[in-house]
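Lab meeting prep.
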Amino acid sequence: MKTILLTGFAPFGADTVNPSWEALTLLPDQAEGVRLVRRRLPVAYDQVAGLLAQAVEEVRPDAVLCVGQAGERTGLTPELAALNWKDAALPDNAGVSYGGVPICPEGPAAYFATVPVKEMVAAIRAAGIPAALSCSAGTYVCNCTMYHLLRLLEARYPAVQGGFLHVPYASEQVLDRPVAPSLPLPLIAAGIQAAALAIARGPAAREQHP
């Protein structure tokens, strides 16, 4: 049985929920013969690398899919690449902010996802849920998490696939954001599950090409 490690984030900013985690809590422990394991990460630049390494060591998954919130997006967006850059005005939940510095000064400029991102988009859309490919995970904690994940897997677990999926606001988050796009949490969860199963059905990490 294949195992997919799924991570979501704690709430951040003014929000009291984060759909990246709340949606994961709606998923079953197994789906179509694939084991789904969940871990919650803090929205903290300087903590995610160690916690990801710990989770991968404990779970020993076949693939890791990190999930984060991108409130301005209208659907689920698998990310093609993580940039070696931290640059956002909003501090993380530890009060840390970066105004434009590398994540790893000795690292490459970017890492490409090793999960089958186009197949993930197709699977989410086949489930009736909006999805599109995104070329960059931004420069906030989500991007930092994706970069650390792919760096970890390349160095220590080359057979393990890795990637990142952004999700929009949950519907309950936009009651006071009348023009913000959103999706109901059950649909976000269904999209994440479709993406995870596409990873499980897809080619191995060594067969992926950016």
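Slide two material, second protein:
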Amino acid sequence: MEENKRRRSPKYVLIVSIVLVIAVVLINMFWSWAFGQSYQQMFQRVRSLSKPTVRMEQPRLTAKRPELMLQKTGFIISFNTETNCPNYVAWYLTGSRAKGRNTKRKDLFEGDPAIAKERRIEYYDYNNTRYDRGHMCPSGDNKHNSKAMDDCFLMTNMCPQAHNLNIGAWNDLEQECRRWAKNYSPVAIVCGPIFDKRPYRYVGQRKGHRIAVPDRFFKVVLMNGRVPKAIGFIYPNKDTNKPMRHFAVSVDDVERQTGIDFFYQLDDKVENKIEAVCNPAAWNI
């Protein structure tokens, strides 16, 4: 009689089994979701760190001025709609990117479709100005990708630049940056114009499409490896035959003269240390 009381009916056993199965399924779903999300987020974070993007070192303006942010293939432009020049252009240059895929230089300058047509600077706005269409992010840094090569010839990436500076000392610095990228890959680069005079000196004939002529140009380079280091350069917008080290300055100097904070995402101690130093010998120049 007692044995019969302890025996469960088949219906009871079935119900208990179904409840247990449902419980196991729900628990598995919860843990799969919770840990799956965590692992997915972790993977995405690792993946993003393993493939550094320009935005990781996007500078910020500390002096007020117009700014229209433009994301291009491989670089970003902070465009100034008052000067019709970039405030700065920033990109990462890796060793493989510096070597490129031999994508041919296109030499076809075009207005940027991101700018309204009625305000867009076109290639012919530089005609008869005696200034080159000076690349900020150079074509030699964009041979890895045909779209990147196209984007670097957009007029939002240009400034009026003295011809002999463009083909001479500035070009030498661009080539040196590619050498650094091959040796220290990757390096973060930011460059742009400096305007000392107000009102601006403009070129161009079309009303509403005049372009301010920079007085100087800056470039800062960061190698954020095992032993981080950084260096800055400021060149006058004119012919020069002086060696590269003559134009080398600290990143702090460039920040003071441009009103741009460059590598603020770094640890403060690291940032303060490397931005205060100008040591051309550490860069073999």
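Talking points for slide two:
The first helix runs from residue 2 to 6.
The CA atoms of residues 91 and 113 lie 20 Å apart.
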